[in-house]
Each structure stands twice: as structure tokens, then as C-alpha cells.
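Sample intake sheet
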Amino acid sequence: MENRPLISIALCTYNGSVFLREQLDSILRQRYTHWELVVVDDSSTDSTRGILEEYATRDARISLHYNQQNLGYNKNFEKALGLCRSGLIAICDQDDIWHPEKLEKQVQLIGENNLIYHDSEFIDPEGQSMNRRISDKLNFYRGDKPEVFLFLNCVSGHSMLVKKEVVQKSLPFPADFHYDQWLAFNAACSGSIDFLPQALVKYRQHAGNNTDILALKPSGKSVDQKIEALQRESDWLGLCAMQCKGEAHGLIQALYHRSLRRNKRYFDAAFGILIWKHRDTLLRLLKKPDSSKFFYALRKSWGAKAKITGK
């Protein structure tokens, strides 16, 4: 046991009493036992706190922390990650179910990699399989090219085991962006990532999910929201260009500047052409034929004026 590295599990909770016991039980059933569970509750108003205290009295590996005011999803995870003691951190959602071999398989593979992730099986609110996996939606990636994560993401937070230095480089999490995509990008900026093809988490889908990977929620957006999304994409590309100074920097910088030009126009073919030219990396995660990737790049070329007129 002494030679096995400690894994810090960061769990954030907020009004999670409906599913929390199943998740905690699945952590306690891990075959890899050298872990600490760092829980930060974001001012829950249901019975979440009572459930946490019940489990903490049963297992000294569980430490509890309570926010006096609600911090929100990203900031709460920032706090939880900052409280983790280990050089290896696993991120945990409050409503999933872990496979007993999840941690064991990940720690065996991580080696020199910055981050290890895995496939997950979708389940409904009652815990029944939806007969779909994340890998049915997206191609998985192993390697060291951060530009793969500019437009798409296959690394879900609940699936990752990440080295603490990557987390430290990624804090604070940028507002209005997915923290798991940011962590994956930074992990590939400074090293390599790898994945396990097994579905090691039952990933629960319900109305309270922060992400909507199966696109189950209504997707209609107003014109203002569509224009805001263009600027947010440019902000993201600019942030990535500042963060990553390696081989990918030139491409990311070019995408950022051309996106700004796109935002001011009706249509900017150069932006879409640049994406299409580098589709083998930029659209690598898209589990679609080249024809669909072409139309994806084409859609990226429409600017704010097109959004106003209904494109």
C-alpha cells in the first residue's frame, strides 16, 4: 500500500441527495483503496449535508467542507481541487456510479501522461442503461496536440485522472467555459493524454446536468445569444493562444484573429477554410464523415451579420 500513490478524489455537491448515496457507495467499492475523498458542498438546502456526514463518520478517508455562500459549479470545483493533497486527482460528479476498477485501471496507465480518461455509459435518472456511450458520439484522442480540443471535447470531468501540475496551470478556471475541456487542453499543451476504452462510469442524464452531451435539452437560441456565442468562441481561442506556447501556438493564434474578423462580417470564408485545412486535428473528435466536417467548417464561417438575418 505504501508504494501505491495516493489519489485525491474531488467531489462537489449541491442539492444532490437523490443520487448521492449511489455515487458514494461506488467510491467505497473501489478496488484501489489508497484515496482521499475531498467533498465541498455548495450550500445545499436539501438533505445532502446529512448524507455526507453519515458517510464521513464511517470512513476517515472522507473530508467535508461547506461553503457559506453558493459559489457555482466552476468555482466550487476550483476550491475542491485546491484542497486535494495528492499529485493525482480524480474528478467526481455527485450523480454518477463508478465501476469498481475505475481508479485502479487509471493509475496503472497514467505513467508519464498528464491525464487519463475513459469511456462512460449513459444511464437515465432511474439508473437504467440508455445503451449509448460517449464514444458513440465522439472519437477519443490520445496524444499531445492541444488544438484537438479547440472546438470539441471528448474528455468529461468525471472520467479524468489528472496530475496536479496540470490543475495548477489551469487555475483559475476561465468563466463561461467548460473546465474539463480546459483541463484537457492544458494537459495536451504540456505533455500527453491517453484513454481507456472501457466504460468505467455510469454517466447519469437528467434535467439537472450541467452539460448536455446527448442534446436532450431544447437548443433554440435568440439572435443575441448566437452573436454572444461567436464572441465567446473568439475569447476561448484567444485564451488558448495565450496559454499554449508550443508548436500549436501559431495555428491557434491564426484561428483567433480570423474569428475576430469573422465576427464583424456576414461570412468569412478564410476562417472556415483554415478549419477545413486542419480538419485532421481540429475536427478529429467529430464522429462524422468528411462531408459533415466540411459543413461544420462552413457553418463556422457565418458571422454576426448572418445571425441577424437568420443564418
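Comment: Residues 113 and 192 are 5 Å apart (CA to CA). The chain has 13 helices and nine strands.
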